[in-house]
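To whoever is on call:

I kicked off a structure prediction for a single chain this morning and the downstream step that reads the tokens threw a length-mismatch warning. I double-checked the sequence; it's 151 residues and nothing unusual in it as far as I can see. Pasting both halves so you can look.
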Amino acid sequence: MFKVRSKYLLLIAAAVWLIAGSQVARMGIEAIAAGQGNLWLLLLGIPATFLVFHMMFSKLVGKHAARIRSYGEEKMHVLKFFDVKGYIIMAVMMGGGVALRSFHLVPGWFIAFFYTGLGIALALAGVGFLVHYAHRNGCITCPVTGKVREG
């Protein structure tokens, strides 16, 4: 039950990462709208956070896309778009984010730039999964880093 052709796992991963990214970025943008953070901090912090997480997430997208492609045409459980390590990382990141906000462990200006940059990087990773789905048999070049990966 709940099995799909493995190629559709790329679409599921894309949806999960796009939704997560848009929600995280929304929280950052809401903090900006509430007047958190000054302009210089936002102009420096958002791109810096984005670049750090984009480099990390682009590796994860490539790794997960390659693993999903290795399944061939088999039908797989819909939750196989991540491996165990991926789910652990996701749980730690989500739990950490909830703790940061719930217990007010960081100021609002940090949420403003960090969540906006992180959310954009997550959403772009979702786009990366879409690109891997669309170019399953070709090469993919990252527009940010210029790295070339097999599709």
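Update from on-call: the warning came from a stale cache, not from the record. Cleared it. Sanity check on the structure: The first helix runs from residue 7 to 33.
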